[in-house]
Amino acid sequence: MELSVLNIKGEDTGRKVTLNDAIFGIEPNDHAIYLDVKQHLANKRQGTHKSKERSELSGSTRKLIKQKGGGGARRGDINSPLLVGGARVFGPKPRDYEFKLNKKVKGLARKSALAYKAQANAIVVVEDFAMEAPKTKEFTAITKNLKVADRKLLLVLAERNNFVYLSARNIEKANVITASEINTYAVLNATSLVLTESSVAVIDNLFKA
């Protein structure tokens, strides 16, 4: 698949890049995508949820009603789960939600996400550019020139550039990552995928490893 390389003004430079069919042209595997996104979201969970059990509540341990003869359930003290303000039975406890996913499955999921973007013609290739200072206004102008300003945007750089990152940080729908940080969730969550010219080669090398 060949794409024209645009400059930051949105003009065709006359150069073309070829997207590797072994990455962008595969048949997407939905189950691999599901597993990778599930792991990504699970790893982001803090897992600090906690509810108090009966022994952790402060309250009198006096037995409120007699054991038998009342016609109701045995409920003991005021901390009983049967009462309003009482303890919770089998409530959540702090836990780790992370789980293992094989490297090949994660690689297949990322390639599948990129293939979906290629199928949807949602990939734009822009020539490498740098910013001399953090300028949100300048970054917004670039997105307008590339006709991706009104969409969820994922810009993939070959290497980290703090000025570009800081320029995009205040834009709600824009996200900037390096090619080595590319992940299934970020690709699928974006409406438009913008690759810098040199990042295409980095992605190729990333999946050869």
Automatic annotation (TrEMBL):
Residues 43-77 are annotated as: Disordered. GO terms for biological process: translation. It comes from the Bacteria. InterPro entries: Ribosomal_uL4 (IPR002136), Ribosomal_uL4-like (IPR013005), Ribosomal_uL4_dom_sf (IPR023574). GO terms for cellular component: ribonucleoprotein complex; ribosome. One of its GO terms (molecular function) is rRNA binding. Residues 43-52 have a biased composition (Basic residues). Keywords: Ribonucleoprotein, Ribosomal protein, RNA-binding, rRNA-binding. Forms part of the polypeptide exit tunnel. NCBIfam families: rplD_bact. Belongs to the universal ribosomal protein uL4 family. HAMAP family: Ribosomal_uL4_B. Part of the 50S ribosomal subunit. This is Large ribosomal subunit protein uL4. The lineage of its organism: Bacteria, Pseudomonadati, Bacteroidota, Bacteroidia, Bacteroidales.
